[in-house]
Sequence to fold (218 residues):
Amino acid sequence: MIKIAPSILAANFAKLGQEVKEVEEAGAELIHIDVMDGHFVPNITMGPIVVEALRPITKLPLDVHLMIENPDSYIEQFAKAGADYISVHVEACRHLHRTIQLIRSYNIKPGVVLNPHTPIESIQHILEDVDFVLFMTVNPGFGGQKFISSVVPKIEALSKMIKERGLNIEIEIDGGITAETIVPCAKAGANIFVAGSAIYNQEDRAGALQQIKAAGEA
Ligand code: DX5
Ligand code: ZN
Fold:
């Protein structure tokens, strides 16, 4: 089953609650929240107070993507704010296993994120500990960028590795997802898709969301 996680980075922040409700009613499965610190990535976005404000607004799981240095220092705050999924970049974690266990200690689904150029070998020894792997298909930092197709073979290779080891891990894709780019990623074995501009920048958001999902399921 394909799950769509609209990224609120592309939403209108002046009416964020409404923007989240709209995609929930349109059939979204998760709400993707992009946290940027101006150090790990060259942009600053939002923190735990936004997660806390959105928690009572929606029944959907809140999927918090941490693009920050020292994620360990902030996991408790995001947990208390109501995150359901928390993903951390392998490139930002010196002791990844510890960070993943810390996330799990709050009963939150832990995930690990790979930048487009980071090889899957960097996560082969953490797979038993995570609930999902997130592949960046753009360089993190901004919405509305072009999909990097050279990531697709990495998705295929990880799907194979997961099957061979008999693991139950979801694969999420983030960056430049549209009704076109979702197709090779879904074929390669991914099942959760983040979409920011391809949903929020459209006039008919529900139509756009359903079109992306249908393309992934086809
Ligand atoms: C990029 C973020 C993405 C971004 C996706 O650093 O992690 O989640 O919001 O936006 P689109 O779908 O517009 O590429
Ligand atoms: Zn993201």
